[in-house]
Amino acid sequence: MSEIRIPQGLNTVLDDAWSAARGIPGFLSEAEARFLGMAAACAPEDGAVVEIGSFKGKSTVMLAKVAAHYGGSPVVAIDPHNFNNAELGDYRTAPGATSFDAFLANLGGAGVSDRVEVHRAYSSDIAAEWNRPIRFLWIDGDHSYAGAKADFDGFARHLVPGGIVAFHDALHEFAGPIRVFVEEVLRSDRFGASGFVHSIAWAQFRPEDGGRFRARRERLAGTAQRLIPYLKDERPLRGLSKIAYKLQRARVQRSPLSPDAWVRLLESAD
């Protein structure tokens, strides 16, 4: 597996990308957005950047700006744009409402329309015919367990060695991202370094030597798996259950990572 390298001028590129993305409505913090851009820039050169769940394009613009600077392939953005996910909360509107027009306008406003391969579709429909290698897989779609599991199963099998998978909202009150991350990633020797950046859970695909990172993954799973019992029934948390969940979540390390620190983490199994 080729060594992960930090491309020249990455911090400046991330600054510029965030400047373009920050004003777009969405649920992505600056630290999370910068992590996405860093992962896309540092991932292996061969393969696609696939985004499942685009909403109005905040993460799409971040990823596309980085891809445009470094000459990467267009970002594959998959979303039915139908507002039907429960996690959208106050963003839910009347039947038939869509985020698609705003999404396209935001891509155009950021100057990245030609850097995004748009699929207005359910991820399951695209997964059924997908046959391209993936270097970075960003899962931010249906946050139910069934939805997140289907997204992972449909696309993670196309990850190239050294590629990165990341789940959004893994440390928010949704069952899907955290369960899939713990059960399918942290408990698998096909993955190496892993961690959290705010609510993003991420891991590197290392099918040949992921076992070297088993102890580190098990330590992370030991804290992360304590969140799952609170979320398994996929009902909103209230009262003491919500307080207990937050106390357990506070034990999960989830600090931002600089590019240098992240690359060192990817290469060291200690």
CATH class: Alpha Beta
- Regarding quaternary structure, what we see is single chain
> CATH topology, anyone?
Rossmann fold
State Rg: 17 Å
Overall number of strands: 7
Q: Uncertain spans, ≥5 residues at pLDDT below 50?
A: 84-88
User: What's the CATH H-level homologous superfamily?
Assistant: Vaccinia Virus protein VP39
What is the end-to-end distance? 19 Å
Number of helices: 11
Shape: globular
Mean pLDDT across the residues is: 93
Strand content: 15-25%
Briefly note the structural class of the backbone. alpha/beta
Order of helices and strands: HHEHEHEHEHEHEEHHHH
What does the largest sheet look like? Answer: 7 strands, mixed
Return the CATH architecture: 3-Layer(aba) Sandwich
Strand order of the largest sheet: 3-2-1-4-5-7-6
